[in-house]
Amino acid sequence: MFTSNWIKAFFGMVLLVVLAGCGGGGVVDTASGVPSGGGGGGVATKSASLSWSSVTFNDDGTPLVDLAGFKVYYGTQSGNYTNSTDISDPSTTSTVVSGLTQDTTYYFAVTAYDTSGNESSFSNEVIK
Questions:
Q1: Residues ≥6 apart with Cβ < 8 Å to 7
Q2: pLDDT tens across the length of the chain (128 residues)
C-alpha cells in the first residue's frame, strides 16, 4: 500500500524527455514497412524518450514490495492527459512514446501503481 512518504518520494522523481523527429512526412504500412500514399501528404511524426527514477521505500523505511508498474500520461494541454501508456514491469524506468505529431507541444507525467491498483499522484510535468 502506498504511504505518504512514498508519494512524496515519487513527486521528487526526475522525468526526462528527449524528442526525436522522423522526416519525410509519408505514411508507412506497418504490415509491410513500405511507404504508402506516394510522395508525402501524411503527417510527420516524432517520438519522445522518457526516463524516471523509481521509488523503493515506504515512509516508515521499509522496502516497497508491492510496486506493480507505472503509467505514462501525455497530451497537448498542461494537466490534461488524453493518452496513457501502461508499463507493467516495475523495474522499467524508461519508455519511448511514438506517433506524436510534429510541431505540436506535448506534456508528460508519470504515476506509479501498486499490486492493489492504488495509483500515486502525477510526477512533475515535462514539456516538449
A1: 120, 121
A2: 444 444 434 434 445 544 443 333 333 333 333 343 444 456 678 999 999 988 777 667 778 889 999 999 999 999 999 999 999 999 999 999 999 999 999 999 998 888 988 888 899 999 98
**Which distant-in-sequence residues (6+ apart) come within 8 Å of 47 by Cβ?**
19, 20, 22, 96, 97, 98, 99, 100
**Euclidean distance between CA atoms 122 and 102, whole angstroms:** 25
Q: Domains of the chain by range and CATH?
A: 4-20+45-127 (2.60.40.10)
Do residues 81 and 71 make contact, with C-beta atoms less than 8 angstroms apart?
Answer: no
